[in-house]
Amino acid sequence: MFEIQRLRYLNREPISVDVSYFPLALGERLVQEDLATRDIFVILENDLGHALTHADVQIDAISADEQLARQLRTAEAAPLLRIERLTHAGEQPIDFEYLYYRGDAFQYRLRIERLAAAHP
């Protein structure tokens, strides 16, 4: 496996730490790209020809450990949003990642449609 870590900023403030794992050959290819300005999924699909088909996602809340607190410039034990994602190309897993977001820098919004109940 090949690990790629990225620290993302918004308005010069760190908002997330992304820790991604790829098959070795793919990771070695990805680190040759400009990952500071280009999205990894765009590179995977457009440059490397991997058609991404689906992802399994889990979202939870955790407390920042010492390293994450330092990277995100927040207090140790501060609330973080953690997203665990396994992305596939076809049926093949291609990218496993943990995304850690500062609790004060991220909102998750959903629109949930309610279907009318069918009556007999």
Q: What order do the helices and strands come in, and which of them pair?
A:
Layout: E1 2-10, E2 13-22, H1 24-30, H2 40-47, E3 52-63, H3 66-72, E4 79-89, E5 92-102
Antiparallel strand pairs: 1-2, 2-5, 3-4, 4-5
Can you describe what's shown?
- This protein has 120 residues and is an alpha+beta fold.
- It has one domain (2-102): Chorismate lyase-like (Chorismate lyase, 3-Layer(aba) Sandwich), CATH 3.40.1410.
- 18% of the residues lie in helices and 44% in strands.
- The chain has helices at 24-30, 40-47, 66-72; strands spanning 2-10, 13-22, 52-63, 79-89, 92-102.
- A five-stranded antiparallel β-sheet has the order 1-2-5-4-3.
- Strand 1 (2-10) and strand 2 form a beta hairpin.
- It starts with a strand and ends in an 18-residue tail after the last strand.
Please give the number of β-strands: 5
Order of SSEs:
EEHHEHEE
Q: Can you tell me the residue ranges where pLDDT is under 50 for at least 5 consecutive residues?
A: none
CATH architecture: 3-Layer(aba) Sandwich
Give the CATH H-level superfamily. Chorismate lyase-like
The number of helices is 3
Share in helix: 10-25%
Beta-strand residue fraction: 35-45%
Mean pLDDT: 92
Return the CATH class: Alpha Beta
Q: How many domains in all?
A: 1
- The coarse silhouette is flat
Content-based structural category: alpha+beta
Question: Could you say what the CATH topology is called?
Answer: Chorismate lyase
Strand order of the largest sheet: 1-2-5-4-3
Through-space gap between termini: 54 Å
Major sheet size, sense and barrel closure: 5 strands, antiparallel
Rg from alpha-carbon coordinates: 17 Å
